[in-house]
Amino acid sequence: MSPRSLKSPIAGACIAALAALLVVPGPAFAQAGGEIAERRSDLDELKQRIRELQEEMAKAEADRTSAQKALVDSERSVSRAVRELARIEGERRNAEKRLAVLEGEQRETAARIDARRGELADWVRRHYVHGAADGVAPLLSARDPNQLARDAHYLEHLGRARLELIEGLRTDLSETRRRADEISARRDRLATLESEQRDRQQQLQTEQSRRKAALAEVSRELQAKKSEVDALQQDEQRLGKLIETLARRARLAAAREAARREAEQREAERRA
């Protein structure tokens, strides 16, 4: 009989057969010795199967411990990935806010440049094409040559100041655009990192689910083996007790048979 064939139903059948022997009177005990030897062999195989299962349980327990550790490591990796993704998302949102501010500054600066450029063009048109306008005419109407020189210098200075203002605004606009380009590039890099981090997080969560399933499977196998060992150990106890009882009754039957034969011998001697 194979050790693995000693499942609970077969062991139960052996126990039932032994129980039947216990109620058979007299001559049936003549065969008890052979039956006991056979059942003891069954019991040995049952014990061997229990040992094998216990070894398998020890390995399954080690596998479960390893699976639990792997799951804990996976959960930590997922937590780190979630935190990193939140950090990147926060930086990207801040970059977008800063970029929006700079874009607003660009629009304002560009509008100021357009306004100053329009004023300068109007000034040039009024004073170098059409002559002095109302606001500057009194300056140019002076008869004193020195006054005229001073007025011309003033107008030249006024035009130069407006040009310098426009150039300054252009410099500001150029710097604002440069900063906006840097922030835009950083935002794009953060968006790429965010996408990569989302993919990484998804991979880690998939791995976490796989490890959870593996742990659950190992736990189910371990529980099944424990249940089988418990059942076999109960059969082992019952089978051992029945064998012990059968052996004891066989000894009693043998003693009674010996006493009967001794009594018959004494009776025969008495009659002789």
UniProtKB/TrEMBL annotation:
Keywords: Coiled coil, Signal. The keyword Repeat does not apply. Residues 36-112, 215-272 form a coiled coil. Residues 1-30 form the signal peptide. Gene3D superfamilies: 6.10.250.3150. The keyword Cell division does not apply. This is Peptidase M23.
